[in-house]
Amino acid sequence: MSDAMIELILSSTLDTLYMVGISGLISALAGIPLGVLLYVTRPRQFLALPILNHLLGVITNIGRSIPFIILMVAIIPFTRMIVGSSIGLNAAVVPLTIAAIPFVARLVEGALNEISPGLIEAAQSMGATPWQIIMKVLLPEARGGIITGLTITVVTLVSYSAMAGAVGGGGLGDLGIRYGYNRFEPTIMLITVAILVVMVQGFQSLGDYLVRRSDHK
Amino acid sequence: MADRIMIALDNVSKIYGSGQHAITALKDVNLHVPQGDIHGVIGLSGAGKSTLIRCVNLLERPTTGHVSVDDQELTALDRATLNRARHGIGMIFQHFNLLTSRTVFDNVALPLELMRMDKNTIRERVQPLLDLTGLADKADSYPAELSGGQKQRVAIARALASRPKVLLCDEATSALDPQTTSSILGLLEDINRRLGLTILLITHEMEVVKSICHRVSLISDGELVEEAEVGDFFTSPRTHLARRFINDFLEIEPPQSLLDHLQNDPTPGSHPVLRLAYSGDEISTPLISRLARACDIDISILEAKVESIRHRTLGLMIAELVGPPEKTREALAYLEDHDLTVEVLGHVRRHD
Ligand SMILES: Nc1ncnc2c1ncn2[C@@H]1O[C@H](COP(=O)(O)OP(=O)(O)O)[C@@H](O)[C@H]1O
Ligand SMILES: [Mg+2]
């Protein structure tokens, strides 16, 4: 294999990591608060706001029900507004992030569901404010579940990023399609797939390790 | 000082839901607990015990009525002031409700963090509490590594961290085995004595009331139907429900063979069967033999039990008075004159 080819594989790998990293980070920063909001504004919760809760729920569900490939095309004007272009790495990050936020939010909400309501009650009996309940009880107690959710998100983002890359983004997906499929170079295809497998394994192992470390149940 | 009221519930009612599905969990409850008392509320499952105790710190807001703790009317406070008032009210729960992600030390520190104390002050406060509750060597353990009794000790230490004047216990020993229960009750009693803490506890177990409560209220269908000093409650219960609790607790019931032959009204040749409860001094006098002599009847004792409750002795007995009707009537009067609680269970005919 030529040096140029090796370099191409390497830079494609970094491109994928870039797309997954940035979209993963932003979707976590937005998705975790959204997930918390979905949980604490439920009827009978300590910040019950049923109308807002319903609204957020509907928006989240819409976000999750649009197939990624359609979302990507549908939001092109928005993508252009944000990053100034509809192709390239940064243009791929926008739909990836938009798709991942509701995904993260629902997983975080699910993790919060696992917390015994008794803990919230105990905190309230100690005079905790809603903000204190979120910061000192909900997030620390759900840490393992949230990390599990983020791991699932990152792994999903790896495969979505291949899709995003294929329509002009770059990264391993793009590489696989261009060389492996269009020019029929099975070695490149195999290498691409192998790197993706290793990447997913790596993220999963890291996630599992972090969960184990935070789990005292 | 002695009779300063620490917890006051005045005309408290709680209705869950509305319309057709409304459930009245508390009906016009009045309860006053003086400073330093251990007050128990006992009742069957679903009677409204948890609702009642949760109304004290407004985890549940009463539908109507007023709640005051330490002369502060909680039902009149805004959110922020209520949160501050809650620092003066500790609470422990049946299922402990410890944070699994925090060590024992950090669990006890939680209420102090919520009060925004600095790390040094927190350390100074937490350590003595771990000593008091016998957890000094468990400071760095996580709740998952502890037994039920140890978890409840952590919860007690946590509840005491903010130096409250009142401790609320919601079925605090119901998830524990009998040995652990008595050690936790011992700890609560110790805290009550040493710190002068006022304790309100709810339970469905008479054992808890018997071991540490000074006064007790009986709750039934959301209403407080009886309130008494614990010794009085056991020796002279006023309601049928109270008697049921006591009988179940002392396990004193007439034998089934007798129950089968028991009839409500006397018939010629039948004898009354009594449940006698006697307490205090009566027990030391040979009352039964004196009764037999004074009224010239025979007394057949079917069941008897003696319990010691709060430094008082309680005797319970199921007995049949054997003699002619006028003599047994005389005996009943004699017993009532001597301050015994007498309940005629029915009448049986001797078939021998
Ligand atoms: N949050 C709630 N919503 C509706 N009904 C409730 C709620 N909490 C308790 N109840 C009802 O109120 C009654 C009293 O319950 P509770 O106070 O838990 O009784 P206890 O603690 O004595 O078992 C029960 O009929 C129960 O079903
Ligand atoms: Mg209960």
From TrEMBL, chain A:
Keywords: Cell membrane, Membrane, Transmembrane, Transmembrane helix, Transport. Pfam families: BPD_transp_1. Residues 13-207 form the ABC transmembrane type-1 domain. It is found in: Cell membrane. Its main location: membrane. It is a multi-pass membrane protein. GO terms for biological process: D-methionine transmembrane transport. SUPFAM superfamilies: MetI-like (SSF161098). CDD domains: TM_PBP2. One of its GO terms (cellular component) is plasma membrane. Gene3D superfamilies: MetI-like (1.10.3720.10). This is D-methionine transport system permease protein. It comes from Aidingimonas halophila. The lineage of its organism: Bacteria, Pseudomonadati, Pseudomonadota, Gammaproteobacteria, Oceanospirillales.
From TrEMBL, chain B:
GO terms for cellular component: plasma membrane. It is found in: Cell inner membrane. The keyword Zinc does not apply. Residues 7-246 form the ABC transporter domain. The keyword Membrane applies. InterPro entries: AAA+_ATPase, ABC_transporter-like_ATP-bd, ABC_transporter-like_CS, ACT-like_dom_sf, MetN_ABC, MetN_ABC_transporter-like, NIL_domain, P-loop_NTPase. Pfam families: ABC_tran (PF00005), NIL (PF09383). Keywords: Amino-acid transport, ATP-binding, Cell membrane, Membrane, Nucleotide-binding, Translocase, Transport. GO terms for molecular function: ATP binding; ATP hydrolysis activity. PROSITE patterns: ABC_TRANSPORTER_1, ABC_TRANSPORTER_2. It is a peripheral membrane protein. This is D-methionine transport system ATP-binding protein.
